[in-house]
Design a protein that fits this description.
Blueprint lengths: L20 H6 L4 H8 L6 H11 L18 E3 L2 E3 L3 E3 L13 H10 L4 E3 L7 H8 L6 E5 L5 H13 L4 E5 L9 H6 L42 H10 L4 E6 L2 H9 L4 E4 L13 H12 L5 E4 L5 H9 L4 E4 L1 H33 L16
Parallel strand pairs: 3-10, 4-5, 5-6, 6-7, 7-8, 8-9, 9-10
Antiparallel strand pairs: 1-2
Helix pairs in contact: 4-5, 4-12, 9-10, 11-12
């Protein structure tokens, strides 16, 4: 196993784009932790396609636009941010840096970015709300509905009491994807890192299929998997708006709205669940068309450049979530690395807006894309 390097004391000038952090992050993580945080499902085709699909989209440049009142402000669900780039929920961030989610939260607050805290965070949700409270930064909490529904209800109450402003229900992972890279690396959580917000929950019995038996369908693991009625239950059980994350199909987007969703996040889980799905950016316009203006639609998956953010907004997203890019920054340089990643992406977005002649996010639509 490799011996990780310590975090960077100073960010080198060679890091000029978000993707430049990747090799620095790799050097500072164990083989197993890297397999978990950077890996994807099966042959990792969907993960690769998330990036490749952005490269097939071309922009339309307009010149001599009046940019004197330009800004990147965005409002969603009665909340406002200075720009549309949010930190996606990523579990067990202490695998990347000893301060974990606390460093990411500090960076989000410093940069006016939204942050979605994972159910499987390695820092208590209340500790993160304490970080955000002095600057009144709105945090969202990502939720997996647990087999223990009473525990889930109690967790939602904790989230409400801690001042979080929305719930993000992840629906595309009733079971884990086929994580071959993790298997090959022998990934297990190291001592001292756990899903601290799930402490006290009734454990789910482990299952090992006998030879010839159904490995999943005979296990009982899907008996408590969330269904559409559970979304309705959650929406009616909380005063917080509930966004549904993991929607790739327009019909599912419509069903989510029917069952109480206040927002849709188009995502294929970073390619970590079902390999062979299209890129999130390819699904986005179809979902956005189905939803219309009823609720905000966000995009998760594949963002590495400010121009990627621009393209997502043009295809119907109100905002975007980034995952791996800020984890790279976190692993390499802690909070300073996450700040730098957010700063570079926002800078690139503003440059793209200036060169495309779109002074506000509302001006970015399909007309900003080049159509052959």
């Amino acid at each position: 196993m490799n011996k990780p390097l310590p975090p960077l004391a100073q960010i080198p000038p060679q890091i000029a784009a978000a993707a430049d952090y990747e090799p620095y992050a790799r050097q500072r993580m164990t083989d197993a932790a890297w397999a978990y945080l950077n890996g994807a499902s099966a042959d990792e085709q969907t993960c690769a396609e998330n990036r490749a699909a952005f490269g097939r989209i071309r922009l339309r440049q307009r010149v001599m636009a009046d940019m004197r009142q330009a800004h990147t402000r965005v409002e969603m669900l009665g909340q406002a941010w200075e720009h549309p780039i949010m930190l996606a929920p990523v579990a067990y961030q202490k695998l990347a840096h000893e301060q974990g989610e606390q460093a990411s939260c500090l960076a989000a607050c410093a940069m006016g970015a939204g942050m979605v805290v994972s159910t499987q965070a390695s820092v208590p949700l209340e500790a993160l709300s304490d970080v955000a409270a002095p600057v009144k930064a709105p945090l969202w909490f990502q939720l997996y509905i647990q087999p223990d529904r009473e525990f889930t209800r109690a967790l939602v109450r904790r989230v409400e009491e801690a001042g979080y402003r929305a719930l993000v229900l992840t629906v595309d992972a009733p079971v884990n994807g086929v994580r071959n890279r993790e298997q090959r690396a022998g990934f297990v959580l190291p001592p001292g890192i756990e899903a601290v917000n799930l402490q006290g929950m009734k454990p789910v019995a482990a299952h090992t299929a006998q030879a010839g038996a159904s490995p999943l369908f005979g296990s009982g693991l899907l008996e408590h998997a969330p269904r559409w009625a559970d979304l309705r239950w959650l929406a009616e059980s909380t005063r917080l708006p509930v966004l549904v994350k993991g929607v790739m199909d327009p019909d599912d987007a419509r069903l989510a709205l029917e069952h109480g969703a206040a927002g849709i996040i188009v995502s294929n889980h970073g390619g970590r669940t079902l390999d062979g799905l299209p890129a999130s950016i390819e699904a986005l316009p179809h979902v956005a068309q189905a939803v219309g203006d009823r609720v905000p639609v966000l995009l998760d998956g594949g963002i590495r450049r400010g121009t990627d953010v621009f393209k997502a907004l043009a295809l119907g997203a109100r905002a975007v979530l980034i995952g791996r890019p800020y984890v790279y920054g976190l692993a390499a340089a802690g909070a300073a690395g996450v700040v730098h990643v957010l700063h570079m992406l926002r800078t690139e977005l503003e440059i793209a807006m200036a060169l495309a002649g779109t002074p506000t996010l509302a001006d970015i639509d399909r007309s900003a894309l080049w159509h052959m």
